[in-house]
Design goal:
By secondary structure, this protein is mainly alpha-helical. 67% of the residues lie in helices and 3% in strands. The chain starts with a helix and ends with a helix.
Amino acid sequence: MSLSKITAHMVKIDPDMPLYSIGVVEDILGIPQRILRTYEEKGVIRPSRSDTNRRLYSQTDLSKIQYVHYLTHIKKVNLSGVKEIFDLLGKIPAEAREIILAESEQEIQALSEEKKKILHEGAEDIEKEILTK
């Protein structure tokens, strides 16, 4: 049987269907369970719950978690800021959302570069002060 015949018979999984336990999400994304729970406690991520009250994450949740982790660990946005970003994005049409996301990313990058420049200049000033003593 060819691959195309096999894939034609595969069931398409709804990306919003809760499938993954917190342990599986940790294994897939490499993000510790403690951090995943913090994201939930801060209201940034809202996983579904099983009948036994276990957290269950969908593929959509995993994508959102990756973006949250990117914003918090790479772009250094705190969780309150991330929540505000998501709240604002949820209130605008999809087309405008994409434009805003692109512009926001550029602004975040510019601020990050400015921060690096200020830190570098401050380090140079400290070095000069040490050398002149």
